[in-house]
Amino acid sequence: MGTETDKVASGESGVVRVEPASTERDGGSAARAGAPDRSRVWRLALVGNPNTGKTTLFNTLTGLRHRTSNFPGTTQEARLGRAQCAHEGGVQLIDLPGVYSLSLAVSESRVCRAALLGEAAPAGERAVAPDGVLLVVDATNLSRNLTLAGEVLGLGLPTVVALTMVDRAAKAGGGASVATLAAGLAAALRCPVVACDPREIRSAGGVLGVGPAATTLEIPNNREALERWAAEVAARTRETPGSGSAPGSTVREPSARAAKTASRRAGGPSRAASPPDTLAFHERHSPTTDRLDNVLMHPLAGPLAFAAVMAAVFWGVFSLATVPMDWIDAGFAWLAGAVHGVLPSGPVADLLSDGVVSGVGATVIFLPQICLLFFLIALLEDTGYLARAAFVADRLLRPFGLRGHAFVPLLSSHACALPGIMACRGIPDPKERLAAILVAPFMTCSARLPVYVLLTGILFPG
CATH 3.40.50.300 spans which residues of the chain? Predict the structure, then answer.
């Protein structure tokens, strides 16, 4: 799969662009033939695994503020936005849900598959296949991301790969630079690769400076073969001696252990031990994260840690929020008294003080608890514990006909049932989704506690 040269450009914003060279064998001109016309509006579909920076890239390029999170299922439908770039006709980006595969029987995969095939479109738009695909790949977890990449490339759509989290990958790569990784991936996938930071507009904008190209690579259509192919590409990157690596690129020869690991993952002899034109870029995980996962997802220690975290969350909600709640209660009581003091006694004064002011105060008084709970949920989400808590809660919810997918909606329902019910749309199974929707209103919130006390006093007078 050698190429004569790879075009590598490193801009002042830190963007690394790599485009496969056009050779007869690789069919470079044929690949370019699939690129859309620059004189009209491009329609590019953003595709990628969950938590790869896909929606962050979409927000940066379009200037929109769609929600991002560290929990799968945030994006449930296609979103449309116009990219801020100097392209003559303009670029329309379609943010598709994060998926691990196009062939899974879940709603996110169905939405992605239909959008890429031109069978579905965002609300109000005509269903038409996109002109190209902006494939977001997490450089720290190549094997998992490349499985989806293989499925997308197999559709034959012009594609450009946006390589995210390259700084972490370069640090974990033991000497392999960002340019080396991008060049190796471009040679392996035979399509343009752009290493960028989706949070920086100058870096993210470099993605749109490269025209998508249809790959000439033959992608395995068998799931097992596709996973072997993804593992093989992830275990090694290729570069012909003398190819255009950016200055300062460092190359590290694969060790025997790396070759053995690649062979075992690929299910056969690895080419990582062949001639010196082969580079290894190792995927590594944080030792601290692995040690924490061993505790947080342990069959015994995991539920105990889960119970401790949930106890701390609800203690904070029902204890720390009492101070601002007392302030709000006192403020509205003073306001109601002020209305009575200004207006003469009568139905108008009673309506304003006892109806409007007291009614609004009875609702606003629960705002501190709701805000505090969602703040704590966001804190758990940013630390990465929320996804692990859903894994632990899966075993606890199964006897009730639910799975870990329902954990976040049910947790949100303790603040208010409405956002909890809306969050249930991320549950893939229709029966489990319906069960979670029906259960969510039964989650106890602070607004229901006075009602429970009142009913308890009526039903059990003693």
Answer: 6-279
